[in-house]
Amino acid sequence: MAPGATAADRRAARRPVSRDVRLFWWASASDALGTQASGVVLPLLLLGLGHSATTVGLVAGVSTAAGLLLAPLAAVPADRGARKPVMFWSATVSALAMAGVTGAVVTGEPPLVLVLGAVLVERFATAVYEAAAAGTVAMIAPPEDCPRVVAGLSAGDQGALILGPALGGALYQVARALPFLADAVSYAVAAACVRALRSDLRPERRPDPGATTDSSVVALDATSDPLSSCSTPAPVKGLVRRTRDELGAGLALVRTSPFLRLVVTWTATVNGVIVALYYGAVFTLQKGGHGGAPMGLVLALSGAAGLIGSLAAPRVVGRIGGARLIVTVTWLLVPLAAGLATADGPWAYGALFGVFCLLMPLVAVVLQSRALQETPPSLQARTGAVLASAVGGSAALAPVVAGVFVSRLGTAAPAMVCAGLLAALALHTTVVRSRLTGATG
Question: CB 3.0 to 4.6 Å from 273: which of 43, 179, 298, 418, for a disulfide?
Answer without folding.
Answer: 418
